[in-house]
Amino acid sequence: MLSHKISRRGVALGIVAAGTFAASAAMAQKKYGSGATDTEIKLGNIMPYSGPASAYGIIGQVEAAYFKMINDQGGINGRKINFISYDDGYSPPKAVEQARKLVESDEVLFIFNPLGTPTNSATMKYMNAKKVPQLFVATGATKFSEDPKTNHWTMGWQPSYQTEGHIYAKYILTNHPNAKIGVLYQNDDYGKDVYKGLKDGLGDKAKTMIVADAPYEVSDPTIDSQILKLKASGVDLFMDITTPKFAAQAITKVAEIGWKPTHILNNVSASVGSVFKPAGLENGIGVLSTGYLKDPSDPKTKDDPTLKDFFAFLDKYMPDADRSNLNLAYGYGVTQTVVQVLKQCGDELTRENVMKQAANLKNFRSAVFLEGITANTTPNDYFVLEQLQMMKFTGQSWDFFGPILSSEAKS
Amino acid sequence: MAETTLAPTAGEAVATAEMPRSLRRGGRIALISGIVFLVVAISIPLFFRNFVVFQFTQMLVYAIAILGLNLLTGINGQFSLGHSAFYALGAYTAAILMDQYSVNYIWTLPAAGVVCFIAGFLFGLPALRLEGIYLALATFALAIATPQILKLSPLEHWTGGVQGIVIVKPDPPSWLPLNQDQWLYYFTLAVALILYILARNLVKSRTGRALMAIRDNPIAARSMGINLSLYKSLAFGTSALYTGIAGALGAIIVQFVAPDSFTLVLSIAFLVGLVVGGVGWLPGAIFGGAFVLFVPNIAEGVSKGLSGAVYGVILILLIYLMPTGAAGFVRAVLSRFKA
Amino acid sequence: MELLGQQVLAGIATGAIYACMALAVVMIYQAIDHLNFAQGEMAMFSTFIAYQLMLWGFPYGIAFLLTIVISFAGGVFIDRVIFKPIHDAPILSHVVVFIALLAILNSAAGFIWDFTVKSFPSPFGSSPLFGSSLISAHQAGMVCVTLLLLLFLFFFFRYTRIGLSMRAAAANPASARLVGVRVGWMNALGWGMAAAIGAIAGILIAPVVFLEPNMMISILLYGFAGAVLGGLTSPAGAVIGGFTVGVVENLAGTFIPVVGGELKLPIALMLIVAVLVFKPSGLMGRTVVQRV
Fold first, then answer.
1. Which residue on chain B is closest to A91 by alpha carbon?
2. Rounded to an integer, what is the distance from CA A162 to the centroid of its chain?
3. Is C211's Cβ below 8 Å from some Cβ in B?
4. What is the CATH class of C2-124+134-278?
5. N or C: which end of chain C has fewer CB within 10 A?
6. A192 closest CB neighbour out of B162, B260, B308
């Protein structure tokens, strides 16, 4: 009886409908935001290639080299990466100008790994207003990852400075509960962030344990005066929150005046080539720090099978680079992470999907991460890397010890 | 034998570009070029996308700041390497008023102007005793001190410390069919024009002539009855006012102020812009502003690794070709017409 | 009290750095009547040349001497070639060319040798002086070399014909020409010497602050401050000024509560300004009389 109802027209309509449905389903797979096409993905980047922070410019070079390698291998899902990187000289107004250029003039899909705390502070509001991802900012400042609701489009990558401070606090409470702590810190966003993490981690004991602190400005030629002050305050645990040049000076001065405190140095300056070699390798023996990346200049890693690809990459695309510069591993790690995000996006290359996939990293590992460290994100947890391991300098390289630590602190 | 001073007098220390009389005589040429400029300026937002409009707005802001510096250095002969301090003061005034007291952005400009005028005047008072190089160094000290003062912890409650202050971008009036960038461009253009006309009138007035007399021959000026202290301090105050308003505008269009935005590099940029435009020639400010904003970008385009070197080479070549800046160039072109 | 003593000594040690720089600044000021803003970058570039020479295998002493010669030639070159075309241009144009030079040297150094810090050896070693923890052998050596340089310059300008000619050329070029002094070459000589002194300063400073393209920028500021404090006409004043700035800065940082550490440089500079307001030609400068 019912068969009468199914007329030929109905069948025809049904086939057409089914066909359209299937076709649109197939087309719905390929969605492009600005900067993405069948053959190309345009990424933007802002780095200090000139000015006071130019030492970090090499990170941009590593990223450019890695994308070149990806393109030589066929690109991501068949699309080549067009990596556009501009110099901001570490100046916030210049960073705003370059961000606007990338978004409005070059029309990139998103801005990847822009560097600097004040510079990213300047551009964060604009990026979120324009709904363009400000992905994996190259700074550990906690504020970039701590509020996914308000700053949906901004995400950090490296372990945050406060996480780092917390971990030092944990280590101190466990191993040196009666220490008299002296803190040398760079008087800016970054230095104060680590310091805050330390204080929060020590909790009530912060007031009694920290007996002296001394800030310094980037414009100070030396920090000798500050170190003398800390020593004179009876400090026996020296918390050293400095950038590479000053870290080198600190290590040298501490050795020079014959002071032997427990010396904890922050992760930013834990590079053998940029800090310990100039300071004198013997002077740095016993210095503690934390790390999350393998050190390619460590003789122990030379035969590490997981780093084979990394060394091959360096040999071919950056043969003159100084292997002891930890920024090489940093650039490699963060670029591999963003490649993972792009892979996860598949053919849906819209800005919304980029953020969605970035907030959907599950146990991702880059070869340069320490064993046991993975990248994880959720829509409510934008902290990509939250784990660190304590390490001690042997005079040649870093010796990792203890468990992989993570911090509960989120802000 | 008169012992020549090793500290250059104000007159020597500053380019005494003979007041471009050829330019004044070429009044009709000035009028025509003024109209052309106006037409071009007004039509920019119609032809360029928002980002470029933003860049031109920045250029106008720098031009206003350089105009302020020109009033002090070009017209009055007082050297200043510290104008980034007044720029910062204006910017922070605007930022704090908008962020903490919800003041409408338009009112922040006169507020910034007043604050900076007072600051400039107060700085100018002790500076009276300093000449040439020494004044340069004192203002140099001011420029260096500014970012560090802005970072001071006791002041953090207002200044936001190292984190700076984020400002909300103002909206255009609802009855205008413009977007935010276009509106801010026209707003800045209007302010720039008003300030330029005021400056020109000042320079042409008796006060202006007194200021220039102080520049060219302070002793003669004093013997003619000009109160050096008053005029020099007023010059400082006015110059600071202009640069302070520029700072406020700059803060509004960039939507962010932080100590790192106002370093010595900015003061040096103003100085370079002043010389490129022509010391003592007010319209030169626009050339200076354009140079300061666009040439670093051009240099970066040529070579990312050596952008600073390219910039330096361009600058040197420019000075070789036009030792007295755009003013000298324009004067040479005009005298070609006269001959 | 012990801390005070230590900080004073540390201040003298850092002050030696500033004094070196201040000396170079005053030298060139005496020679050309301008402040050379690119002085720091020239010194930095010279130090990199020394670094490169040592990388190529030259021993320290030879590298040191070669660098002095190259820097001297460089200084003469800058004067005779780069500044010649704008000889008659107003002072501000000169200042801008200095700035351009600064940008070029800084950028070129970063491009050739990159921006990470490098260690630079010291001829005096880095061990503490006689085992004292207060001042290292190198820093003491720095102080000595600075004083020796000062002595050399004093004799050069006072008692040699060339020195006298240079002073004449700077003080009164017109009259100097009349008595046969070749003013142009005296200027160039002044530039060369300033460049050479800058190179010595850089080579002495690098072991302490570590070599990198941006190392001289803040030191130059302190050098200017020291030079002005002492009076731009007096090399001895410049050296004393440099030491004073170092000590004051350290003491301010240590003993002024709350803001001391954050305001070290501004306090030092404000001090300079204050001195200038009361004694415009600096502590030891000659008061100049302007005749109408």
1. B261
2. 14
3. no
4. mainly alpha
5. N
6. B162
Instruction: Give the per-residue pLDDT at B4.
Output: 39
- Please tell me the pTM assigned to this model: 0.84
Q: What is the 3-state secondary structure (H, E, C) of A3-47?
A: HHCCCHHHHHHHHHHHHHHHHHHHHHCCEECCCECCCEEEEEEEE
Are A249 and C265 a contacting pair at CB < 8 A? Answer: no
Average pLDDT over residues B184-205: 92
Q: Where are the alpha helices (DSSP H) in chain B?
A: 10-13, 21-25, 27-47, 50-70, 83-100, 105-127, 132-150, 156-159, 180-204, 206-216, 218-223, 228-254, 264-277, 284-302, 307-321, 325-338
Residue range C124-145, pLDDT digits in tens: 766 655 555 556 777 778 888 8
Taking CA–CA distances from A96, the nearest residue in chain B reads B254
pLDDT digit string, tens, across residues A334-378: 999 999 999 999 889 999 999 999 999 999 999 899 988 999 999
Contact B50 A93 (CB under 8 A): no
Q: Write out residues 168-197 of A within 8 Å (CB-CB) of C.
A: 187
Min Cα separation A43/chain C (Å): 25
Q: How close is the nearest chain B Cα to the Cα of A51, in Å?
A: 9
Residues in chain B with CB shorter than 8 Å from the CB of A122 are 164, 254-256, 258, 261
Mode of pairing for the β-strands spanning A288-291 and A387-393: antiparallel
Please name the chains neighbouring C, where neighbouring means 3+ C-beta pairs under 8 angstroms: A, B
What are chain A's domains?
A: 40-159+305-380 (3.40.50.2300), 163-290+390-406 (3.40.50.2300)
**Mutation for testing the C interface, residue in A223, A253, A256 having most C CBs under 10 Å:** A256
Q: d(Cα A85, Cα A46) in Å, to the nearest integer? A: 6
Round to whole Å and give the CA distance between B249 and B254.
9
Tokens matching residue A316 = 């071919």
Is B78 near chain C, with CB under 8 Å? Answer: no
Measured CA to CA, the distance from residue C110 to residue C118 in angstroms comes to 12
CATH number of B44-168+179-338: 1.10.3470
Is the model's pLDDT at A90 over the cut of 50? yes
Give the relative orientation of helices A244-256 and C183-209 as an angle to the nearest 10 degrees.
70
- The sign one gets for the Cα dihedral C105, C109, C110, C115 is negative
Residue B27's pLDDT is what? Answer: 74
| A258/C3 touch (CB, cutoff 8 Å), yes or no | no
- Domain positions in chain C are 2-124+134-278
> Which residues, including other chains, have CB under 8 Å from residue A9's CB and lie 6 or more apart?
none
Residue C130's pLDDT is what? 55
Q: Which residues of A touch C14 (CB under 8 A)?
A: 221-222, 224-225
DSSP for A69-98 reads HHHHTT-BTTBEEEEEEEE-TT-HHHHHHH
Helix axes B105-127, B83-100, angle to 10 degrees: 150
A25-56 residue pLDDT tens: 444 467 888 888 889 999 999 999 887 788 88
Model confidence at A72, pLDDT cuts 50, 70, 90, reads: very high
Measure Cα distances from A338 to A111, B16, B176, C278 in Å.
Answer: 11, 58, 42, 61
Q: Which residues of A touch B58 (CB under 8 A)?
A: 93, 97
pLDDT at B238 (0 to 100): 94
Which residue, A77, A74, A84, A78, is CA-closest to A42? A84
Q: Which amino acid is at C183?
A: V
Strand A387-393, strand A398-406: pairing: antiparallel
CB contact under 8 A, A50 and B307: yes
Domain boundaries, chain B: 44-168+179-338
Reported as a single tens digit per residue, the pLDDT across C136-183 is 777 778 888 888 888 888 788 778 888 888 878 877 878 888 888 888
Quickly tell me which residue has 């050896």 as its tokens. C121
Contact call for C209 and A221, based on CB within 8 A: yes
